[in-house]
Amino acid sequence: MAEPYPTPIIDLGFARLDVQRATRTGDAEVVFGAGKTPAQVVGALRALHAAHPDRAVLATRLSAEAMEACRAELPGVRLDELGRLAVLGSPGPARGRVAVVAAGTADLPVVREVAATVEVCGSEPDVVLDVGVAGLHRLLAERDRIDAADAVVAVAGMEAALPSVLAGLVGVPLIAVPTSVGYGWHMEGLTAWLAVLNSCAAGVLSVNVDNGFGAGVAAARIARRAAPREP
Amino acid sequence: MAEPYPTPIIDLGFARLDVQRATRTGDAEVVFGAGKTPAQVVGALRALHAAHPDRAVLATRLSAEAMEACRAELPGVRLDELGRLAVLGSPGPARGRVAVVAAGTADLPVVREVAATVEVCGSEPDVVLDVGVAGLHRLLAERDRIDAADAVVAVAGMEAALPSVLAGLVGVPLIAVPTSVGYGWHMEGLTAWLAVLNSCAAGVLSVNVDNGFGAGVAAARIARRAAPREP
Amino acid sequence: MAEPYPTPIIDLGFARLDVQRATRTGDAEVVFGAGKTPAQVVGALRALHAAHPDRAVLATRLSAEAMEACRAELPGVRLDELGRLAVLGSPGPARGRVAVVAAGTADLPVVREVAATVEVCGSEPDVVLDVGVAGLHRLLAERDRIDAADAVVAVAGMEAALPSVLAGLVGVPLIAVPTSVGYGWHMEGLTAWLAVLNSCAAGVLSVNVDNGFGAGVAAARIARRAAPREP
Amino acid sequence: MAEPYPTPIIDLGFARLDVQRATRTGDAEVVFGAGKTPAQVVGALRALHAAHPDRAVLATRLSAEAMEACRAELPGVRLDELGRLAVLGSPGPARGRVAVVAAGTADLPVVREVAATVEVCGSEPDVVLDVGVAGLHRLLAERDRIDAADAVVAVAGMEAALPSVLAGLVGVPLIAVPTSVGYGWHMEGLTAWLAVLNSCAAGVLSVNVDNGFGAGVAAARIARRAAPREP
Amino acid sequence: MAEPYPTPIIDLGFARLDVQRATRTGDAEVVFGAGKTPAQVVGALRALHAAHPDRAVLATRLSAEAMEACRAELPGVRLDELGRLAVLGSPGPARGRVAVVAAGTADLPVVREVAATVEVCGSEPDVVLDVGVAGLHRLLAERDRIDAADAVVAVAGMEAALPSVLAGLVGVPLIAVPTSVGYGWHMEGLTAWLAVLNSCAAGVLSVNVDNGFGAGVAAARIARRAAPREP
Amino acid sequence: MAEPYPTPIIDLGFARLDVQRATRTGDAEVVFGAGKTPAQVVGALRALHAAHPDRAVLATRLSAEAMEACRAELPGVRLDELGRLAVLGSPGPARGRVAVVAAGTADLPVVREVAATVEVCGSEPDVVLDVGVAGLHRLLAERDRIDAADAVVAVAGMEAALPSVLAGLVGVPLIAVPTSVGYGWHMEGLTAWLAVLNSCAAGVLSVNVDNGFGAGVAAARIARRAAPREP
Amino acid sequence: MAEPYPTPIIDLGFARLDVQRATRTGDAEVVFGAGKTPAQVVGALRALHAAHPDRAVLATRLSAEAMEACRAELPGVRLDELGRLAVLGSPGPARGRVAVVAAGTADLPVVREVAATVEVCGSEPDVVLDVGVAGLHRLLAERDRIDAADAVVAVAGMEAALPSVLAGLVGVPLIAVPTSVGYGWHMEGLTAWLAVLNSCAAGVLSVNVDNGFGAGVAAARIARRAAPREP
Amino acid sequence: MAEPYPTPIIDLGFARLDVQRATRTGDAEVVFGAGKTPAQVVGALRALHAAHPDRAVLATRLSAEAMEACRAELPGVRLDELGRLAVLGSPGPARGRVAVVAAGTADLPVVREVAATVEVCGSEPDVVLDVGVAGLHRLLAERDRIDAADAVVAVAGMEAALPSVLAGLVGVPLIAVPTSVGYGWHMEGLTAWLAVLNSCAAGVLSVNVDNGFGAGVAAARIARRAAPREP
Predict the structure, then answer these.
(1) pLDDT (tens digit, 9 = 90+) per residue, D74-128?
(2) In this complex, do B8 and D105 lie within 8 Å of one another by their Cβ atoms?
């Protein structure tokens, strides 16, 4: 049966098909998987990959069904179960390095989203785990490695003390990703969000709760500019 | 002119005159100065001191006018301008030691309220300042001193990372006092409050925002029990 | 299929393997079961028990499946269905006593979490139920028993009046655990949380909503120090 | 100079001139003083008194200037400095009795507003002070007196435990007035408000924060019906 | 297998077994069904009915399974599917009448909870539906009937304008029950709650969102006193 | 078995049967499907259609089951799967045109609810998609088409910048519908709601989050009046 | 002394000098007086009046000093002390009529801002006061007058029941302006805001709290289109 | 008179004297003027300038009195009345350029704080004003200039649509500063804060409300790295 009034033509079911944007900004094309069917995800990745054969394209927030569909229908796709991600195509040589730092395993899904985004956006992710503020010696041991990066992304839930401590140790541009990880009443990550935006250390930047993708895009922009392409 | 209906007898204008309580709990008597006139503060301190001549009594949150009245009318009173406090009488020998730890000068008024309360409640305050998480080496240098205390009170505003870092360094019972200190949108201290109650370190206890008095009473109770009176 | 980028080595899937910490602080090792698979819970308990054969280790917030796996695979484990807990190993002789006080049966799961944590952290829990403020005579009948403890944990939901009433009756260090128990609009426990942090009685300490584990760790620290090990 | 467009006729500057309402409901006429000039308050009281010569009329939330103007210009007015109230005329014989109960002196201004409203609405207020939950024996001593009233108004700030304790002690219709009294972060009385609306005791009714007037009107309605006019 | 530590004796799994309370206050005994198993509900109703054979006892917030169990195992029980209620025993002759007023069908479950509670607490409920403010003529047509009641309970969701309009029409003690009924962003009933507590009409009392039971208990207390038992 | 007390006659299970209203206002009759059974939806649509044979009637927020029941039992019904809508009857000739504008596909269900409501309320919806602020050229290309409408409804989630940009481009009465669409912490649409109510452009009107129906009713009222019926 | 870095040229100190906008939309030019000096207000009004000699220009939210400066320096200005407004120039013949409806005197400043904005935007304001829901007969008496308008603006504080009642009485496009007027805890107008956006009546539109200007602009746009200019 | 207990040595009254930090990170030294006396501000600036004679030092959030004291006592100081800033010393040659973009004059104080911070941190601020989204042509005219910068800071109040629009136009790293500017209920800038953190454009970074200093530090870090020091 027909629908009650005419439906405008829609862009294949994925949000933003803007082929000039990637060229202009150097960011990768991304499919937000939340709320999409497996078929929509596969179709969107295939179309974006065809439009950008020399770059990598990314899909985030995938359901188990969507990941299974990607595995079955997209030869060469790389999947990350924990991060709920799929990558199609090769990102090419990386410019700059982004340290992705977190305290523990609970924040790992967001860490993976940051790292994959950094990679498809043309920079190199360097993941540093197990450096929570409750065990300072482990963080101090990684200080020089982090300070040598071109940008830092600090992923932190609960009270989110890590970005403040980090910002006192290194002088690199620093983006905090508050996460909704916690064991009590934390208002779905509001605690971590408020914490990183009230850091006692100057220059801590923030994205929304759990928004690893947004942090990865921004960090890669910074890192690519800090390390221009080799001649 | 008479008031429109009979007024019940009131307890001299101060909140709780319960002479048995101090004996029973070991806590000191306190006058909350907020909203009281200078005459009410002076009268309350004088009456409590007369009821407890062998102990110290405390007044908190005093206006400048109330402090001036105490100075003029209460011989032997000790005043703290920064902490807005007055103490009358001697607390006697202290049992146990409470480390009162803070990052910087902005939290100093609350630090003073904690320390004075600890003292009048019969324990020894040991104030450790300038140990914010943005300069970890200074905090690490004081670790042994803090770990040797019978209780720790960590006063912290902004994102309140200090209690979490401290709780990873020492095994002493730890009370966090979130403060309303901050330079941006922090919802009058809610940020710090949420942070300390979501600490990634186990066993961090909390009182209300800026409630140095409450933290001091509780810390002294813990410290006195940890260090029983000498025979 | 390989994951898209190298994964750092992870600490066996449980949050904090810090074998020195237990020795230093006297706290027990704990596995937070929320979000973990049955296999992860079993593996973590087994590894921690091997590292600390002379102490008890605890797992909290377990799913029914995780409890079943513990029963099947961990000989000697003790389980608490209501509290969703598992304990492996013996805590050794207890130092000090912690009164765990609550009004009714709805708060019982949190009461169990407090009591088990106190026990594995080396102190003795003494559970006192059915003492809600709506039936004061029952609370008054238990006053001396509570006052003789080394620390008190008051578990309270809804309007959380119990900690305030208790703090007026006894002089023992008192920790309130607000719970998310309620029958109307209470903002997931915010009501109880705000109540305990605004208690009219001095010295009431608090942890996060439903955080029985945190309260148990802190209470055991206080009780152990108040009652040093026998010679 | 004229205003830019015609102004409709306004009712003398006070909110509700509805001469039938008092007759119909038995409530008194009231002038809300907040935001009114001294002249407006005096004019409104005088007009209402002229319309109801055989009843009392009330003005609440008066500024010091408005109280001074009432004293100077309204012969026979009765003023309450603490409650910021003025009463003109006689309320006539009272029907029923309303117990107005509170913990301490900080809530006294609201207590006065309740009591005066009860009186002008034709019932007898019976103020019971110093019965906070931190000193239960004093509350228990007044139990029979409160239980014999026709309605109870419990005024309580901070964590507002008093209404719950009271509701477990007496079977009288009970109205709680949460107040904005507190010494920490209590969100301008939201804490007390949430507490009374989440009371573990059945049948606790509530009005808005500090709304002594509303509670007094409702309590008097209940009390007058419970004690019909003598023949 | 035994539980890890001794469990105190519990009151049969239901919240408050206080056989004196009903006698003292005239309120009925109630079983809150939320979170209880069918067996617990049946057991609690049976025990309370045995303790009070000459009164009615009530169970609220029942699951479909619990209602089925009541039907199968409790001869003579009366069930209300829409209100999720069960009543066992007879309430005896009613004293006073309570008008229970609502706009539409969406609020009907709460209306039923109010009415059943009023009935088991010994007063007569008089339900008046379809009187929303969007159709004023229907409300005006019921004015005299409502005004003749001994108490009014106004059940209202969404913007909850009904209590304010009612309070301007009748002089009866009025209790508003805000409900969580709505079609947009209303913060789970906060909108209605704030509305009834900010009514422009004096004397509107409130209970928590959806708390029909609390409103019913309070209304019956008021109505019973307004209409003393016949000689 | 009978229910415990008499049930008043109810209006067939749907909210508002007010046959004069449609005639008076020109709005259509609507069945809110949320919380209704398939049989209730079908019955309500059939009854309203019988009462208004010459107009269209609408049902919104339908479950999949309710849509299936409409398809099976209501000949001639038009269904919209994405918008979860059903329309029965013909709306007659349209007066005026309402531009319904949105950025992308995620807001499409709300767009459909707006459009269908406009249509059944007697105006013509003109849907303009893919005009998000991140691709300004597409919005600018549609400026004249939007400016020529009689009213504009802008549907926008996330940060809801579209209404502000639109209001700077066209002078038509503009209604914003904030939606709960977003990928991070946005408080269920509060972000979009606050944004549209704080627009820097004058005259932006708003309805509740996701309330496409409300916006459609209001827009059609405006458009019908701007384009009076032909003679 | 020079400022530390060059300052870009600024548009004379007032927010938006966009001479085409008024011609395009028919809205008037407005100076928001909040935060501006008297000299800035006078200068802005004079410049806008010079640019639009055949229209009226408006200034809102004026301080007493700014109003005095307007009176002294702008011949022909019309001032409204209560609404804190100034109007310069003549609005020309009005098209359409906007009913501006409110309950009482407390909302009068916002009513004035609505009415003046409507007038300078080219429509006729028709102010209807004293029609609060607590006195329904007065509102019903004005029903026909309101229903005959081309748009309605309902100004309402406290629980804001008026817009819902009005929307059930008339079929005119209706804009609600929630106000921050209230006597208790209403969160600076959030109560009224939530209420109008959750109206049980379909099609109620809203602006921000106290935003009489925004409502006036939108209402005039609607009214002008409903009543096209005479030939 | 002496204070009641010994006071630890304090760092001259200003928050952070960490002479190595500037060398390590390249950030400038800053004095937060909020809450400091004029003498403290002057003393802090003088001491920091002496410690860093070859760099510029900054003071922010100065009172009028503090600015006057700087003018009188610090030769060579540069003051910005609107931004409430003081700069002492020369920042040396700039590396990189930061576009500081805002809609209008109300955000100018924050714009000034961003620009001055960028300058003292060693980069070049390029201020672009009058480019609000309500006048898109002005923003589009500046697109190439902004796109050529090394970093962008977008300052935006009210609904904060500017950062989203900008992020769709340029590929430069972008930091949004939400401001507390607004004319209605916007929760002290929460509206703008939520908006920028929910931007539909990827990669928008944020600092706290009105935190121009934090944005400036971060932007300069990014810009300096993008444009390495000349050989």
Answers:
(1) 999 999 999 999 999 998 889 999 999 998 778 899 999 999 999 999 999 999 9
(2) no
3-class SS of residue F53: coil
Whether residues G197 and E185 touch (CB distance < 8 A) is answered with: yes
Residue A4 is given by DSSP the state S
* Closest to F60 in 3D by CA, of F119, F100, F124: F119
The Cα B31–Cα B46 span in angstroms is: 11
CB of B28 less than 8 A from some CB of H: no
Pairwise CA distance, residues G90 & G94, whole Å: 11
- Using a CB–CB cutoff of 8 Å, tell me whether C159 touches chain D: yes
pLDDT tens-digit map of A184-218:
666 667 788 888 888 878 889 999 989 999 999 99
- DSSP 8-state symbol, B176: E
Residue spans of alpha helices (H) in F75-210: 108-120, 136-141, 143-147, 162-169, 190-197
Asked whether A and H share 3 or more beta-carbon pairs under 8 angstroms, the answer is yes
* Residue A82 Cα to chain centre, angstroms: 13
Read off the amino acid at residue B170.
V
Cross-strand partners of D124: D97
Q: What is the pLDDT of residues C156-202, one digit of tens each?
A: 988 888 998 998 888 899 999 998 876 666 666 778 878 888 887 88
**In G, which residues are within 8 Å of F206 by CB distance?**
197, 205-207
The pLDDT of residue E71 is above 50: yes
- Angstrom distance (rounded) from CA E40 to CA E35: 10
Contact between G105 and G127 (Cβ < 8 Å):
no
Subunit contact G184:E196, Cβ cutoff 8 A: no
Distance CA G143, CA E187 (A): 33
Q: Which pair of tokens denotes residue E219?
A: 């209304």
Q: What is the DSSP letter of G31?
A: E
Report chain H's mean pLDDT, rounded to a whole number.
84
Name the burial class of residue D149, with classes exposed (0-12), middle (13-18) and buried (19+) by CB atoms within 10 angstroms of its CB: buried
Q: Give the C-alpha separation, H117 to H113, whole Å.
A: 6
- How many percent of chain A have pLDDT more than 90? 52
Query: Which residues in chain B have their CB less than 8 angstroms from residue A187's CB?
Result: 194
Single pTM value for the model:
0.87
Q: Is A55 on the interface with B (CB under 8 A)?
A: no
Residue that is written with structure tokens 């009473």 in the block: B217
pLDDT attached to residue A136: 84
Q: In this structure, which amino acid lies at residue C108?
A: L
- Residue G173 has its nearest CB partner, among F204, F206, F221, at F221
CB G131 within 8 A of CB G138: yes
Set of chain H residues whose Cβ sits within 8 Å of the Cβ of F161: 133, 159, 161, 164-165, 195, 200
What's the N-to-C CA distance of chain H in angstroms? Answer: 60
